[in-house]
From TrEMBL:
Key word Protease present: yes
Alphabetized SUPFAM superfamilies for the sequence: Starch-binding domain-like (SSF49452)
Keywords: Carboxypeptidase, Hydrolase, Protease
Entry-linked Pfam families: CarboxypepD_reg (PF13620)
Superkingdom field: Bacteria
Protein name, as recorded: Carboxypeptidase family protein
Organism, as annotated: Breznakibacter xylanolyticus
Length: 303
């Protein structure tokens, strides 16, 4: 609808440009559109790549740590060093399930033992390069920890900005331009008529819109099933204008791979409550635009 209004006003610019009142309001309103577009693009930022990179670096670090732990255990058994044995016996399942900060602590502990016994470990197949590689893998994984959260924070901020910008733009239309267009009803009937037409939101019954969701565990990126998503429409200008569409609260649950899909959804801004037993609940905001597919990606932290 915004693009329709903008196109009409551009077409008849020579008609209203000398009217200081209408021109001032239009310029304020038109300035909101590029800001909406920028935040729309930021809202749909792809965080999957960031999470995949994090998982890959964790796998490399874990593999190198398990190898080093194996060599240290062999060394400890051969020399009868109980202290080393007790400090490096971590099964793969334990490392895979450990929280981010915990797994880094474990890997650093193994690394410390390897550094302290580097000379002796040469006979057990451990080279200086292997110890250096383990250190590098820990550093590389540690550097990824903040990236998914940063991407998520960027998406959240963009969504909050969109809610504010849509309201500001709609207020300018409803409270000023929709009123001031009456100045042209008699003198410029074509402009008046086309403006009124562009302000009508054609209901698609939600068929042209859809939302795709995905939810994963923050600690390891694994998909989470049976996560409940409750979508409550916000009372902003967008939904009020689309009054022809009945907008009700919707509830969806994630499937085996953490995915869910809403094939039909009226456009507007929604408050989304995300819940799963054993995890911290979240509340986010998402904007659904007519004719576009919106992606919602959530990472949940354990209680």
């Amino acid at each position: 609808m915004f693009y329709g209004v903008k196109g009409t006003c551009k077409k008849y610019q020579s008609t209203w440009t000398t009217n200081a009142l209408f021109a001032a309001t239009y310029n304020l309103w038109a300035a909101k559109i590029p800001l909406i577009e920028q935040n729309r693009d930021a809202q749909t930022i792809e965080t999957t790549g960031v999470t995949t990179d994090k998982k890959g670096k964790r796998a490399v670090m874990t593999e190198k740590t398990l190898f080093m732990s194996n060599r240290l255990q062999s060394f400890g058994n051969t020399t009868g060093n109980a202290e080393i044995l007790e400090s490096v016996q971590y099964p793969a399942s334990y490392l895979n399930k450990a929280r981010d900060t915990d797994v880094i602590g474990i890997c650093n502990a193994v690394l410390s033992r390897a550094v302290a016994n580097a000379t002796a470990l040469t006979a057990y197949g451990v080279t200086a390069a292997m110890i250096t590689d383990l250190q590098a893998s820990i550093t590389a994984y540690s550097a990824t920890l903040a990236k998914p959260k940063n991407a998520k924070a960027q998406t959240k901020t963009a969504t909050e900005n969109l809610t504010k910008l849509f309201k500001e733009a709609e207020d300018l239309l409803v409270k000023r331009m929709d009123l001031d267009i009456e100045l042209f009803k008699v003198s410029k009937p074509d402009f008046y008529s086309q403006y009124k037409t562009s302000r009508i939101i054609i209901s698609t019954g939600g068929k042209a819109t859809a939302l795709l969701g995905n939810v994963t565990a923050a600690e390891n990126g694994e998909p989470l099933k049976n996560v409940t998503f409750t979508f409550a429409p916000e009372s902003n200008g967008m939904l009020k204008s689309a009054s022809a569409v009945a907008v009700d609260t919707m509830v969806k649950k994630s499937a085996e791979k953490g995915n869910f899909r809403i094939p039909s959804m009226p456009e507007g801004t929604y408050t989304v409550t995300v819940k799963k037993v054993g995890y911290k609940p979240q509340v986010v905001t998402v904007n659904v635009a007519n004719g576009e597919t919106t992606n919602l990606k959530i990472e949940m932290e354990k209680n």
